[in-house]
Specification:
This protein is mainly α. About 75% of the residues lie in helices and about 0% in strands. The relative contact order is 0.10.
Length: about 180
């Protein structure tokens, strides 16, 4: 049985019989890649990414009857995660005027990162939110441009442009940091 058919079988069991074990199988299957996607979107904030992943799965469970099967379940799930993340960003916008670097210094927890990983996260911060999401879905989650367009609800050409511009910005930043010389 292929992945899409297996997902549809589990979804049908959830919808028809309210089978929570079937939904648990979906969670187990998609939990790690979804958390990785959110971890990268949040630039390494594991607590926030875990909260967002949990919220994503709760929303998916509560709205699973609205899944129509037109796209893959993973595309639908990542769309929920993408929206959940940006809802979180929008709700925190009121704090934008605060001096974030100063607050980060005072409240940060020391986490060991490699210099390269730190530079990648810094480079990701330079991207517009759409560019960052497209780059992460393409290169970290290995999704096709078409799948990304479905998740982001953008035209295929726009997704390709976001990826291209994001790659250019990251490349320029990394070259300026001394990589690839």
């Amino acid at each position: 049985m292929n992945n899409k058919a297996e997902d549809l079988l589990w979804i049908a069991q959830v919808v028809v019989r309210d089978d929570r074990r079937a939904f648990d199988r979906l969670v187990c299957k998609y939990q790690s890649p979804l958390r990785r996607f959110l971890l990268n979107l949040t630039l390494g904030d594991s607590a926030l990414s875990d909260d967002l992943a949990q919220e994503t799965f709760i929303k998916a469970y509560l709205n699973i009857r609205s899944f129509q099967g037109v796209s893959a379940f993973s595309t639908w799930l990542y769309r929920i995660a993408y929206n959940t993340y940006y809802d979180s960003v929008r709700s925190n916008k009121r704090y934008e005027d605060l001096n974030e670097p100063e607050i980060d210094k005072k409240t940060s927890v020391s986490i060991e990162f490699s210099a390269e990983k730190s530079d990648i996260y810094t480079a990701l911060q330079l991207l517009r939110k759409e560019e960052k999401a497209a780059i992460l879905l393409c290169y970290m989650e290995e999704m096709t441009h078409k799948e990304i367009a479905g998740i982001m609800k953008l035209p295929l050409g726009t997704v390709k442009t976001h990826i291209l511009k994001g790659k250019e910005k990251i490349s320029n930043f990394l070259i300026h940091q001394g990589y690839g010389k």
